[in-house]
Amino acid sequence: MKLYDLPASPNARRVRIFIAEKGLEIPMEPVDMAAGENKTKEYLAKNSLGRMPLLELDDGIHIAESIAICRYLENIHPENPLFGKNELDQAIVEMWQRRMEFIFLNPIINVFRHTHEMWKGQLTQIAKVAEVESEEVKTKMDWLNTELEGNQFIAGDNYTVADITAQCAFVMGKAAIGIRIPEELTNLSAWWSLVTSRPTARA
Amino acid sequence: MKLYDLPASPNARRVRIFIAEKGLEIPMEPVDMAAGENKTKEYLAKNSLGRMPLLELDDGIHIAESIAICRYLENIHPENPLFGKNELDQAIVEMWQRRMEFIFLNPIINVFRHTHEMWKGQLTQIAKVAEVESEEVKTKMDWLNTELEGNQFIAGDNYTVADITAQCAFVMGKAAIGIRIPEELTNLSAWWSLVTSRPTARA
Fold first, then answer.
1. ipTM score for this prediction
2. Å between A132 CA and nearest CA of chain B
3. Do residue B124 and residue A143 have CB atoms under 8 angstroms apart?
4. All domains in chain B, ordered by first residue
5. What confidence tens digit (pLDDT) does each residue in A2-46 have?
6. B161 and B70 in contact (C-beta within 8 Å)?
């Protein structure tokens, strides 16, 4: 098994944290996007969308999409579940994972893509998109702060894939677009301290 | 168990088709968004984001997010699986479900929101977003047509939740923003005929 990695990508980071939380050892091969390595014929044969992360199995099958990769790893290593423990819990974790993705991670990536030098010429950058999504992310931090009342983690009492998605979103928010969690959002700040102090946080 | 429904929503349709494919009978209660029923204190206590669909369990627990609802129904009714049969298959289905969501469903919903009268005043409509995403959806139809070569369904030999997401995307594309599957994309057209002729397609 091998993971094609993109070190700076928040999606790839989700998978790396997941692997570390599971205590797995999976060789990683960084793909140099700036050098176009993801657009070679060879790589496109593995993932026709030319994206990372990508998991290669020993029989040559490829799994793309960060959460699909995590799901596969959870399926073959079910101990210490990060997608929820039982039928209901799994649905609740999935609900929160998706909320964190749609409300924070994807908009934050979008702000970055629509403003950063690196993406110039690769897509039609629309400043207004960045402005609107940025405001929406800030508004939704208040919402998440309220939702965290009485809960240690995003989906309840346990650290799950929903926390991984949220922490990767806020890492990118802070590093790439200057959106920080305001101190007065005490629940969200406490959660942030808790998840970023885990030994896996810098995976 | 009860489903709070939004009849015209492609996300709610995904859940209705899923329920029909599973052969389940779940009472549905339409929520009148135009009348603001989703923003009442009572509804917001069930789903703080005020969105539909929403599954209410008999013990008063609520599950939001269409795919989380489907996952719960799959978990409690595992026969006739729509999320894949085994560990690997489940990852492949998830990969395709997410691709259909990110590449088709979400952009098509976005085009609608950024152009339609109904959304005026509810968000900052940006015409350029609609234009760019619309073109991208058309380009990606070619990609999907190629990917379907040799496969009956999106994720392989079986009808899955990935097909449900894709068909709900293209139903909305056709009805709401005038994007149709071009006839010359023969694999995609054959798939479209196949899925839309299923008895559940109009659920």
1. 0.95
2. 7
3. no
4. 2-76 (3.40.30.10), 87-196 (1.20.1050.10)
5. 999 999 999 999 999 999 999 999 999 999 998 999 999 999 999
6. yes
